[in-house]
Amino acid sequence: MNRHKIIGLLLFVTIISLFFQGCKTTQKYKELQRIACDSLYRDVYSQDTLNLSSLSWRQLFSPKLQALIEEGINNNFDLKIAQARIDAAKANFKQSQLAFLPSLNANAAANFQHFSDMQNGNPQIYQLYANAAWELDIWGKLRSAKRAELAALLQSEAYKRYVQTQLISEIASAYYLLESCDAQLDLTMKTIENRKEDVTAMQLLKESDVVTGAAVVQSEANQYSAEVTLPDIRQSIREMENTICLLIGRNPGTIDRDSLSQETILTALPTGVPSQLLANRPDIQEAEYQLRNAFELTRVARAYFYPSLTITAQAGYYNNALSDFFNPGNFLANIIGGLTQPIFNNGINKQRLAVAKAQQEECLQNYKKTWLAAGQEVSNALYKYQAGREKANVRAKEIASLQKSVEYTQALLRYTSNTNYTDVLTSEQSLLSAQLSGINDRLQQLQAIVSLYTSLGGGWR
Asked: What tens digit of pLDDT does each residue of 233-278 get?
């Protein structure tokens, strides 16, 4: 066997070994085993696939709230930013698809040279030619880059869905909070009217020597203690209106709304099974697409260790005179194939791969964390709703008892001498506090429903 055959055989064996080593870079992404399990929601074990998130937000909320949500989806600035990210990701993905095609450049040149001896040749050369270069995707580097950009595109779309679910949650929560402020204002105004009547009654009782002047001034102070809360409540109303206006992309102004008492509180809150979270929650989808992107970029980084095969071609015309420039005899064409194997690159390839692996591991841990956070949110929302419901039932009994207490102490003060105004004052203050807490209990239930709806992945359909 001569030397040329030996060299050719060694070159063939080297290329084959590199090919099999490079097959590692063509391994496909495998979906991770889901983090979801029966206990992800904590103390909730359901095999029913019916899920609250399957409802459209148009089915869940009242008409006036629906109008605000629709306005927010059309005008919210965060959603517009998310759409801009999608447009950028689409451009990147489109470019990654075009990377499989050869590049093509056209060139035209005219060179003029000065010779001391004109007999050495013509001093000018005219050239018109095109260059093309094509890299063969042997190790899947371009395919991995395309899949990475596709994952980035899907991630940006999932991010937009996540922004929309959060927007709906924020608008609904703020809307219910605004209604609760209205309810507090109405209750306070009614309380002030009742306490004005108390002041009048105390003045009449003083004239009849039933109570002293201390009871009169106490009743006036009791009225003022309710009136002094009005500015804070009105400020809260204005702030919540402005917050909603910002969310829906509107200048600050009034918000059309219903009353808190008109809102329907759902009694059945199906959660489905934890495995449905991947299909429903955009943030989990976003985290998985981010992991896919990092996986593909790791493959791209590994491919830099293997040789790249490029084919370059050139074709065109050249001549010393323009008169017969396009003469077939002046046509020039060539094709060159090249194999480039990196040997020493200042550690850049190793650094690129190490960074890609670290980023992939970071995305993996973030993916797992997102699953657990989703389970935590569902569990918290369920317990918050249950706690609000239990409090509302007990609160109703408390308010009923306090109302009777106020009536009894007022009657005792007017018709007997077995009590004084301090007892009436204590009863009225306790009643107002319980009624305000009752409003908060109802608000808690409504906001818990919104939280559960969002944590299960509802709002983007």
From this structure: 999 999 999 999 999 999 999 999 999 999 999 888 888 888 888 7
Q: What is the pLDDT of residue 193?
A: 94
- What does the pLDDT average to over 136-146? 85
- Whichever domain contains 124, its CATH number is 2.20.200.10
25, 144 contact by CB (below 8 A): yes
The DSSP letter of residue 271 is: B
Both ends of the chain: CA-CA distance in Å? 71
- Contacts of residue 194, defined as CB under 8 A and 6 or more positions apart, other chains included, come to 428
**Tokens of residue 222, six digits:** 């009791």
pLDDT over threshold 90, residue 353: yes
Rounded mean pLDDT, 293-313: 89
Mean pLDDT to the nearest integer, 332-340: 75
Which residues form the domain of 107?
103-136+307-340
Location of structure tokens 């009752």? 438
- What is the Rg, in whole angstroms, of the alpha carbon atoms belonging to the chain? 38
Q: Does the residue 293 lie in any domain?
A: yes
274 and 285 share one domain: yes
State CA 275 to chain mean position distance.
20
The 10 Å CB-count burial string (b at 16+, else e) for 15-50 is eeebeeebeebeeeeeeeeebbeeebbeebeeeeee
Strands (E), 20-87: none
Tell me the CATH number at 195. 1.20.1600.10
Q: What is the pLDDT of residues 398-419, one digit of tens each?
A: 999 999 999 888 888 777 766 7
Which of helix, strand or coil describes residue 327?
coil
CA distance 136 to 308: 7
Identify which of 173, 178, 176, 242 has the alpha carbon closest to the alpha carbon of residue 455.
Answer: 173
- Give domain status of residue 241, yes or no: yes
Question: Per DSSP, what are the bridge partners of residue 319?
Answer: 126
Q: Please give the tally of structural domains in the chain.
A: 2
Nearest in space to 218 (alpha carbons), one of 402, 425, 415: 425
